[in-house]
Amino acid sequence: MSLKNPAFPSSEAFDVINSALAASEADRKDALKQGNAVFAFTLKNKAGEVESWHIDLKTKGEVGKGPGDKPTVTLALSDDDFGKLVSGKANAQRLFMAGKLKVKGDVMKATKMEPILKKAQAVKAKL
Length: 127
Description:
This protein has 127 residues and is an alpha+beta fold. It has one domain: 2-Layer Sandwich (Nonspecific Lipid-transfer Protein, Chain A), CATH 3.30.1050. It is built from 6 helices and 5 strands, in the order H-H-E-E-E-E-H-H-E-H-H. It has helices at 12-23, 25-35, 79-87, 92-97, 107-110, 113-126; strands at residues 38-44, 50-56, 62-65, 73-78, 101-105. It has a 5-stranded mixed sheet. Strand 2 (50-56) and strand 3 form a beta hairpin. Helix 1 crosses helix 2 and helix 1 (12-23) crosses helix 6 (113-126). The relative contact order is 0.20.
């Protein structure tokens, strides 16, 4: 089941993150231990449409559509900025300081997202 939405080009990253989590049981357990939260992402594309995905690193260690069950932290940003963040071309702190990344919930948990995104970059580099 693909999580990609053609209206949101960067949503392909959720498939990459999901396959990174599914690739090895040890990596998944490590991500659960590091994350210990449900991360929700609300993206807005150039047409003004809004879509949500979540990364459950609290119980299942998987990615899904929608905000998930009681997200610990919700990150809202543009589809374009999310693409840059996942590819390593943008820094979450700089996006936040520039007002391009909105964080609701546990801000400290949001900092735990960086290693998971780096794993996705490593998997994407192998593709």
